[in-house]
Amino acid sequence: MSTSYDISVQEPVHGQNDIKNAEEAIKRFREDDDPQTVFFLNFAPEFDGMEDLHVTKYSWATKIEQTVQAQYGKEKERHAIQLSWDRASYRAKLVDYLLRTTPWCIFGVDRVKDAEKHDLTGDYHHDKEVYKGATSDWLQASLPEVPVDRLQVIVKYIAETLALGQGRLQGVQRFAVALSVESENEALNQPGLRTVVLAFDRKAKENQVEVTGTLYEAKVNNKLLHQQKFDQKMLDLGKPLVHEWTLDIAA
Q1: Strands 38-42 and 172-181: what pairing?
Q2: Contact status, residue 52 vs residue 181, Cβ threshold 8 Å
Q3: Can you tell which superkingdom this protein's organism belongs to (predicted)?
Q4: CA-based nearest residue to 5, from 251, 246, 228
Q5: For the whole model, what pTM was predicted?
Q6: Which residues, 6+ apart, have CB-to-CB distance to 34 below 8 Å?
Q7: What is the pLDDT of residues 25-62, one digit of tens each?
């Protein structure tokens, strides 16, 4: 039986200042036009409990942008490539953090990819293949439900952007890929989210990149979720961001 959850009747639980701050954070997001580092995969057809996952992601989106602005909003040179990547990388980190800490997301699976070091030459084509191989290996291992060819658009994007940024970026660049997972128990109706994160730490002096990864999957406890008070305005602000971050890879 489908779970009914009408987000349109949610009460306003935030003040006008909260709404204004969220609107300003999203305005900054659009002005900054940072690289995309968060990918919500639209692979499986709509299934029971999908609306709970949508509400969860909408609520995250405004939190993510407000947190990004709190961390980096006062920095000068907002449009510098390094700061743009710092913000983008932080978004990927926050997606993983929110899945681990959201009260109605119940722990399921937690895996860590052993660090791997790969040699870089500085040649665009060579290094792009290095990034492509490392990305493809972890995504395929973490998302076996998704055909390899459907993941290639993300693999190529990550490899291309990292290869183009070589020599101009410092620190760690992160990417988060999240897959909606259907409930294994129809009676419980607990759909889930699996977040796969890849982190690339380029060692310039060593001509190497260190690649690490995590996989975290949690089930949504719909009873806990439906006890939450959401603000419709906040959800409406987050919804377009989630749509922008969603990649349709369904057949």
Answers
A1: parallel
A2: no
A3: Eukaryota
A4: 228
A5: 0.90
A6: 84, 85, 87, 88, 91
A7: 999 999 999 999 999 998 766 777 789 999 999 999 99
- Supply φ then ψ for residue 114, to 5 degrees: -60, 140
Give the tens place of pLDDT for each residue, 166-208.
888 888 999 999 999 886 765 566 889 999 999 999 876 778 9
* pLDDT of 155 higher than 50: yes
Query: Residue 130 has what pLDDT?
Result: 97
